[in-house]
Design brief:
There is one protein chain. By secondary structure, the chain is an alpha/beta fold. It contains 17 helices and 15 strands. The longest helix has 23 residues. The C terminus is likely disordered.
């Protein structure tokens, strides 16, 4: 198979979707790997490393012309929309369910390519290509928040010794991002308030599973002020946050709004008026890259370094913060993604989709149609199950599928979708 590795053009984005040693493995199976000139330089992988490992370094146009399976990291920017066509399979983060406008989604997918979104590969809250970047994101936002608080508020946040007063931080959400933030702040001995949907026991269970500990009561052992989200009456939760705003040095949001917390119930957990109660130089970060979701004043940014002030409070909401440590991030991401790349190369793209339910769940568009129900519902767009599209005669002929490749596998994916 012809496989292409594209260079990222997003501001500050230096990650790459395939390492040179992985390109060597693909070559050993008889595949050809075309790498866009300079694609890996920002992650510490110069062109010569790819060439030593059997890759062919070419221009972007040549990659797009020669390769069938295209590998990227970030979602295509508008200036990249016309790069893809119906002969391509694009394997990358797509994030159709975030800030992208429905019209832009329609424009991009109209190119007809098969799009597999890293973030949806998996099932049942286990998303192996999203997890490592989310975990890294939490640590990086925590690290950045401490720096910003020191620079703008003059507060040394870490309580490394008893004579140092700890800063006071709030974490919203204990998913992968939130748990990393929790670990970083606990290691630096900050005073903490944590807000999550789970009850105390469930919150402790999540922390013990993540940090591979046994029966530690994190909430009590570290004297964490814990707020359980009242999903039925979120105004109560908002009031609890309000009472703490003036004393907080840092807020990091690592949660997104779910369907059970509509705008009708509560427009924002933290609104502009609440932000104004924080002392100047305090820091708010939304690590989820969802604009004005739970915090009214948070707008995501493509810049790794951009901050802005609202009522004297510093906001930092980078939407791709793992790019700050591109080599580490590339190692973590490709360690998980390469399994799927190799499987598609060796077994065929459609055949792999049909046989691997994790990968099938990641298919977000094909033949100009959205194929991911959750994304389509959120954006108010029509969608079609991937199983139905793969049954078409034209797809059968194009991919030379044998009848046995369909059958029960396609039926199961249709039912699941």
């Amino acid at each position: 198979m012809e496989i292409g590795v594209l260079k990222e053009i997003k501001e500050g984005e230096k990650r790459v979707a395939l390492r040179p040693d992985q390109a060597s493995v693909l070559k050993s199976y008889g595949h050809r790997v075309y790498v866009e000139n300079g694609a890996g330089v920002g992650s510490g992988f110069p062109n010569t490393e790819y060439e030593k490992n059997g890759s062919i370094v070419v221009s972007k146009c040549e990659v797009l012309d020669k390769a069938r399976l295209l590998l990227k990291v970030k979602a295509p920017l508008p200036e990249e929309y016309r790069d893809y066509n119906e002969n391509h399979t694009l394997f990358t983060y797509l994030h159709f369910d975030e800030n992208i406008a429905p019209q832009q989604i329609e424009e991009l997918i109209s190119r007809g390519f098969l799009g597999i979104a890293y973030e949806w590969v998996g099932e049942n809250k286990h998303y192996p290509l999203l997890q490592p970047m989310s975990r890294l994101t939490g640590y990086l936002f925590a690290q950045k928040a401490l720096y910003l608080c020191a620079w703008n508020k003059g507060v040394f946040c870490s309580g490394n010794e008893s004579f140092l007063p700890s800063a006071y931080a709030m974490i919203i959400g204990l998913g992968n991002i939130g748990l990393s933030t929790l670990k970083y702040f606990l290691d630096n001995k900050l005073k903490l308030t944590v807000l999550d949907n789970a009850d105390l026991q469930s919150a402790n269970t999540k922390a013990n599973v993540r940090f591979k500990t046994t029966n530690i009561d994190y909430i009590r052992a570290f004297n964490i002020d814990y707020i359980q989200m009242d999903i039925n009456n979120p105004v109560i939760t908002k009031d609890a946050i309000t009472k703490r705003m003036q004393a907080l040095d840092i807020i990091i949001c690592s949660a997104v709004r779910r369907q059970n917390l509509s705008k009708d119930k509560v427009e924002y957990l933290i609104d502009r008026e609440m932000v104004s109660q924080m002392t100047p130089g305090s820091v708010i970060c939304d690590a989820t890259a969802n604009d004005k979701d739970l915090i009214e004043t948070c707008i995501s940014s493509a810049s790794l370094h951009y901050t802005y002030e609202v009522n004297g409070v510093i906001h930092y909401n980078c939407d791709h913060i793992p790019a700050l440590v591109a080599r580490t991030a590339t190692q973590l991401l490709t360690q998980e993604s390469f399994h799927y790349v190799l499987q598609m190369a060796n077994n065929g793209i459609v055949e792999t989709i049909l046989s691997n339910r994790f990968l099938c769940n990641g298919v977000s568009c094909f033949k100009g149609q959205l194929t991911h129900k959750d994304t389509a519902t959120k954006k108010g767009l029509p969608w079609q199950p991937i199983g139905e599209l793969l049954h078409s005669d034209s797809v059968r002929q194009r991919y030379a599928l044998e009848a046995v490749a369909f059958g029960s596998v396609v039926m199961s994916t249709s039912e699941r979708d």
